[in-house]
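Standup notes
- HV: blocked on the assembly model, inputs below
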Amino acid sequence: MENNPGTQAGTDPQLFEESAEELYENAPCGYISTLPNGTIVKVNKTFLTWMGYEREELLAGKRLQDLLPIGGKIFYETHYAPLLRMQGAVNEINLDVLHKDGHPLPVLVNTVQRRDANGKPLLNRTTLFNISDRKRYEQELVLARKKAEQATKAKADFLSTISHEIRTPMNAIIGISNLLKDTALSPEQQKYVRLLKSSSESLLSLLNDVLDFSKIEAGKVELEERSFDIRELVFRVIYGLNVKAEEKHLAVRMEIDEQVPAWLRGDSVKIGQVLTNLVSNAIKFTEQGSVTVALRVRELSADAASIDFSVADTGIGIPRDRLAQVFEEFTQASHDIHVKYGGTGLGLTISQKLLELYGSKMRVESTLGEGTTFSFNLRLRLGREEDAGGAPAERTPDEQTLRGLRTLVAEDNAINVFVLSQFLRKWGVEFEVVGTGHQVLQKVNASDYDLVLMDLQMPELDGYEATRSIRNLPGERFQRLPVIALTASNKIGLDERLDSAGFTDFVGKPFKPEALFTKLALHGGRQSASPAVRQPSRVQARESLASSRPVPRFSFEEFRMLVGGDPQAIRELGAIAIATHEQYKDIFRKVLESGHREDFEFHYHRLKSTTEMLQAHALQSALDRARELMAREDRDPARLQAAIRDLQWELESIVSLLKEGLRKL
Amino acid sequence: MSATKRNNVKVLGNGDKAMVFAHGYGCDQNMWRLITPAFRDEYKLVLFDHVGAGQSDASAYSRVKYSSLKGYAADVLDICRELELTNTVFVGHSVSAMIGILAAIEEPARFDKLVLIGPSPCYINDGDYVGGFTRKDIEGLLDSLDGNYLGWSSTMAPVIMGNPERPELGEELTNSFCRTNPEIARHFAHVTFLSDNRADLPKLRTRSLLLQCSEDVIAPPSVGEYLHRTLPESRLMVLDATGHCPHLSAPEETIAAMRTFV
């Protein structure tokens, strides 16, 4: 039908002035045309109004991408432009364009590309819709999502912090139960200590799981690569869990394909962690039958092997509809599982995530009531025995190794000091304890130490600052002095802080005695030669201490710390200690003069626990020398007199140091 | 899962020697469509999508594995291993240039030559080094990705809509190339633009051709020069083409430049 405005009477003539040009210029959307490289060649009035530019300004060679903020430019180059070239059009791209005054205008962009007969691009036609209002709603949505994410993160952080806080007192519990185990106990007490030890260790492993999990979640876990003996690794995992299997009369089998190379390269600790988790689960959920750990070679090349690992049990199995959920964090196959078997439901999640580091995935197959098989594949490079370095894992430390190692312990927590002291003394380490960073600096300046064990949280000057200050002291020995951090914190990012403060290494609290021993031997220049004959001879250690160099006498400060800093308790204990030492001056003089060995032994042992407690090393040395003398048939009267004088002197010194200390309180 | 399936590997061409094409951030293997015809008679052409892009298997994505470019380099090596490729010509665009360098350092025998288009070892300015961006700029990019995600942009939507039970939802939408899972795209952007692989460069022993565009906001000339100085056995060619994708905007010039090297 012909459309002739003139013939339609009664209609507003204004309406019919709508021309193509008018529509282009004033349409409710922006129009721009550009060359294929983005140069703007035509633009409508609507867009100019939005953007605050004059037409000439935009047509003077400006490109569409010049109107974008930097993030948008990257998006333009990496996505918009290639997409447009490939498919000739793009739809609904979200971009911000910048107003002349710099403020962003959110727009939705559609572009069509005009091409010549050969498909060569000629021109891009772009429409832009102003989506300011919509964008505001979207931003609210983003904000809401971020808040939800932050809340989740806050919960995770809380979990990590709490776990860390619990680890600190665990130090005391595990350390002291270790010590307690070595004392003379009735069978019933032994049973209790075993329970105490195993419960506290399982609590520790739970805390470690939680911390591991948070660490992996934060992407802070990396794979280490070194050569390891895969058979030994599997054997060690099984061996470590065998007690539990034996209790349930389960057979644990190891089936390793002959083709599996002896040495592989990889992170044996993490692979061991995954296997330990699977095997201990298998044992936990199996009442009769067996657990089989199998390794089969899928593919073997000149430099690598692809190995299928599987752990199969004949246990309760997992219902089909719960299979996928077993890998979710804090989720177990059913609530009953938790009630009956305990656990956090973190083990498999951690294992799964550790495997992800290798680009692998855990698979599970299960038949209810018949058993479950977990399997995964790892592609590992071939290793060589020569490269298998690293710490000797669980070797019995040669207790002579550390004897006489001059160590400064900076730790302000009395219980930690107590536990540390017990081990250090057992190993014959010659040590002094201070409680603040300032004291550390004084001490390292005044004497020559082989090593410093440094707590991180100390009053006034903390461990980081103290270490930094040591490194800044003039003199090369302060650069070389090994400073080992004692840290209860497993928080993320700590390693970097330790490193930048100048720490040589760290020992995590609660420390395993072996770990502490290894670190001391490593950095104290006392590389353990061989597992050697175990000879825990305290007396010998002390004798050598006494003969080699002067030993610290007694520090009121240490005494104060040991008691825990409560002035009233210090006064009371101090008074008792003064009275005890006064009393012993007399006792030992009489006993030594009489030459009665049994009497001496009795008093020796009674005083010994106190000297240990007070870390009165000099007194202890004097006592040991006297004891050695008493053990002889031919006692030289002159040496006996010297021993009496020594003891009197040491006892008197402690009494006066205690009195002085109490006065200053 | 095989690497061929995971990375949607396509093999075409008639030659014995292999040419492996790795697409850059924000796209997929389709971006090589204007280049591949020129080489298909002489080479065996191997194309693939990085995990998370194009038709790759997004279920193979692991945040941990792909938290550094090494995860992507491992995939390239997996593909070479599976197809038993050695002595290849590797053509990598943008971030894939660096991915190729990492792969060639790891297993040099797999690579004869590297063609690196718009490469950059580090996108962020650092002291004397001019990468072209500040950390804040990169956050701007991440924001704009967020915008596209929430805005249900059709560039992202096909993946969201493309659920296996209703394939027509994905098919009907117009932007069929360069599909990217938005979450992965965001993480890949993070990993790409915050990466710094400058320390790896001197370890490379493979010959390389650096193709640098005249005006490239993502890899400015200073970056090309830096790479040329730092990479042993490298040749730098500056193209007339502008932008970041000369293989799309100026395929003839790109092909001619490649021919001088391969």
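- HV (later): unblocked. The mean pLDDT of chain B is 85. Residues 135-150 of chain B form the longest helix (16 residues).
- Next: hand off to the docking folks.
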